Each structure stands twice: as C-alpha cells, then as structure tokens.
Amino acid sequence: MSTKKNSNVLAIIVMILLFGMISFVTNLASPMGDVLKNQFDVANWMGTLGVFANFIAYACMGIPAGNLLQKRGYKFTALAAVAVGFTGVGVQTIAGLLEGNVAFGVYLLGAFIAGFSMCMLNIVVNPMLNKLAGGGNRGNQLLQVGGSFNSFMGTAVIFLSGIFVPDVLKAKISQVFPLMYIALAIFALAFVVILLTNIPENENLGEVKRDNSNIGPMSFRHFVLGAVAIFIYVGVEVGIPNVLQKWLQNGGLDVETGAEGIAATVAATYWLLMFFGRLLGAALGAKVSAKAMLSAVSILGLVLVLGAIFLDPSITVNLPVFKGTAGFGMALVPINAALLVLCGLCTSVMWGGIFNLAVEGLGRYTERASGIFMALVCGGGILPLLQNGIVDWTGNYLVSYWVIVAGLAYLLFYALVGSKNVNKDIKTE
Q1: 364 & 231 share domain
Q2: pLDDT band at residue 63, thresholds of 50, 70 and 90?
C-alpha cells in the first residue's frame, strides 16, 4: 500500500511539472510574436501566426491524441508528447540559424509541432490529475494545484524573456536561444523522469481496443454541454486581456502615464491574478465543490464585466500592476480596466471546475473525452476574433465585452443546470 501511495505521489509531481511545461512553451510564443514582426518586417497579424499555429494544432490533434491515450495509455502518450515538444522547439531553434522567409516558415512549422505537444500533454495531465485524486472535490483541488504551477511558469517565461531579451522589439530569433535551450532541457529531463516513473493506467486499457459500441463521451449530456463550456471559457480567458490591451493602447483614452506601457502592465497583472486565484482555488478545492466554485466566479465575473461596460471610462483609479523585472508599481487606469483585470481571479479556477464536472461519471470514456476537450481549446482563437470584429464594426471596445457577458452567462448555466449527469444508466466500466 505504501509503495502504491509513493508511486501516486511521484506521478502527481510529474503531472504538475508537465502542467508547467505547457504554459512555459505556450507563453514563449507571445514575446516571439514581436521578434518575428520586427525581424521579418511583417504585419502585426503575421507576427502572431506562431500563437495561431499553437491553437490550430489543438483543433487538429485533440481527438487523435485522445484516441492515442485511450489505446496506449498515459505513459506512452506523455512520452510521445514530450518527444514531439522537443522536436517542435528544436525546429524553432533551427529557424534562428536561417535567414529570410525560410527562417520565418521554419519557425512557424516548429510552433505548429510544439502545439501538437501541448495538446497531447494537456490530454494526459488533466484526466490523470483528476484520476489520481479520486475525482470529485479532491480532483478539482489537484487540478487547481496544477493550474497554479501552470500560471507560475507562464509568468516565469515572461520574466525570463525580459532578462534574456531586454529589447524584444529589436531582437532576432537567435537572441531567444536561452529560453529555447531551457525548454529543450525541460523536455529532455521530463522524458527521463516519465520513463522511470510508474504511471497508473486504466485496468481496462486492453479492452478499450475491442470496444466497438456507439457509446462514447458524446452520449453524456453533461459532457457535451461541458465541452461547449470549455470552448467558451478559453475564449473568455483570452478575450478579456486581449481586447483590454488594445483598448488601453487607443490614443483616444486620456491616461496620464502613457497608454502602451499601461496596456502591457495591466494585461500582465490579469495573468498574475490568475496565478493567485488558482492558489486560492487549490486551497478551497477540497472544501468547496466544483459546481459551487464555478457558479460563484461566473456570477462575480458577470458583475465585473457589466460594470466595465456601463461605467464611465473617465473615472480613473490607481491599480497596482506587475511590471516584470521592474517589480510592482501603481498605474492610473480607467475603472473599467481595473474591473476587467479583476476578472483574472474569476477565470483562474474555471478550467479545473469545468473539466471536473464534465468528466464526472464518464469512467472508461474519460480519456476520449479529454481529447474532445483539447480540440475545443481553439475557442481561445475564435471568440477573441469575434470580439475584435465587433470592435472594427462598432468602433467601441467595451461593446465587444457583451460577447464575454454571454459566455459567462452560459458558464453559470452550465454550473447550475448543465453539469448534472442525466445519463447514469449508461455503463462506464
């Protein structure tokens, strides 16, 4: 019994470390956007193609990776994901040794390959953490712990980019090599650790291959509605700071301390609050149900976003913001911006809560469900696009946040009504 317990603890640590790797590699694409834009003298949208490639990879790889997990198990899929990630970052590193359009194309290829890896890792980590904790409140708690480390690593890569590349607007891919070397080292170490770690597998792994029934995760109403919730949630999480940063860069705003600087620091603070929110979620996860937690943060998020829409932007407040290597400082921002930043506390715990509720009672269909979830992460690219389309159409940034209001309203509906398992008659063992 003691040996099994120790094995589970080691497996949990490995999964949490993998959770951090996902954020490190994904967030590396953000400063790389500015590097690409300036090195290759391309438009802003072309500079963000690396980020886009990551999201598209989720849509392409989500379901195949879920099937791989179901057929070959957690350990094999995790090892494959790490190997693919090492290859993706390696290709991006090679791009730094090339010149011209070839270098640009090679980097995008590497970003796409790395996106496959991030998708595969997410598919392994989320159900495994939920499984190791025994589901329920404990599963939600462990997912929040993993999410906290995920946010920490996301903040760390931004901090490190400021150290290694102090003037990112003039940097080249080759100057980002230190960060890429760190990522490669993490992948290499992770591969060895996973290889030597006993990862618990489903007892019916061999039987899954012979399951030819028409029953699957999509047979469960609460999972279908949960999959929609994940699509919406990722769009909400990304859309709030995305449009906020553009709004603060708008020259029409009377912000004393300079719009562009404020935009960057405020957006950074949103992600930092997500880190603290996940720490709080982890502390409360064993005591507060995923349903109650998701309901509460959805309501609070609705109040904050509606306040941001209706309040007069001429009302300004001093907001403590995270400025990277400069530490913390005060910034004068419209009250609307401050309210939207606080939404980071709400979005921080939503992923774990939605996943926990959606896979509850799925049994042997959990692995395939995780793949479907990952495919729908593409909502992080679609809903912000819709928001920006509304901005272009109306000329009003705050009006676009009605998309966020609709999304949060759906998440509240899912927490209160849609998350109930009404298909308990389906055999899952």
Answers
A1: yes
A2: confident
Arithmetic mean of pLDDT over the chain: 80
Query: Is residue 209 situated within a structural domain?
Result: no
Determine, yes or no, domain membership for 207.
Answer: no
* pLDDT, tens digit, 9 for 90 and up, residues 176-198: 888 889 889 988 988 888 888 87
Query: What contacts 106, CB < 8 A, 6 or more positions away?
Result: 91, 92, 94, 95, 98
User: Hey, what amino acid is at 326?
Assistant: A
Whole-angstrom Cα distance, residue 140 to residue 285? 6
In whole angstroms, what is the distance from residue 325 CA to residue 344 CA? 21
Q: Rounded to whole angstroms, how far apart are CA atoms 415 and 420? A: 8
Confidence of residue 6 (pLDDT cuts 50, 70, 90): low
Among 197, 232, 250, the domain-final residue is 197
The total domain count for the chain is 2
Mind listing the pLDDT tens digit for each residue in 391-402?
878 888 899 999
21, pLDDT greater than 70: yes
List the beta strands (DSSP E) in 150-257: none
* Residue 179 within a domain: yes
What CA–CA distance (Å, rounded) separates 399 from 410?
18
Same domain, 123 and 61: yes
Report how far Cα 398 is from the mean position of its chain's Cα atoms. 24
Residue 301 lies in a domain: yes
Whether the CB-CB separation of 277 and 345 falls below 8 Å is answered with yes
Do 190 and 226 lie in one domain? The reply is: no
Q: Which among 328, 319, 343 has a CA at the least distance from the CA of 271?
A: 343
Residues 294 and 233 both lie in one domain: yes
Please report, for the domain that includes residue 143, its CATH number.
1.20.1250.20
| 162 and 274 inside one domain | no
Cα 219 to Cα 3, 84, 182, 224, 369, distances in angstroms: 37, 32, 42, 8, 11
- Among 84-88, 216-220, 330-334, top mean pLDDT goes to 84-88
Boundary (domain end) residue, out of 163, 197, 231:
197
Asked if pLDDT for residue 173 goes beyond 60, the answer is yes
User: Rounded distance, CA 329 to CA 271, Å?
Assistant: 16
Q: Which of 94, 86, 120 is nearest to 191 (CA)?
A: 86
Task: Give the N- to C-terminal CA distance of the chain in Å, as an integer.
Answer: 24
Q: Which domain holds residue 141?
A: 1-197
pLDDT digits (tens, 9 = 90+) for 278-298: 888 878 777 888 899 999 999
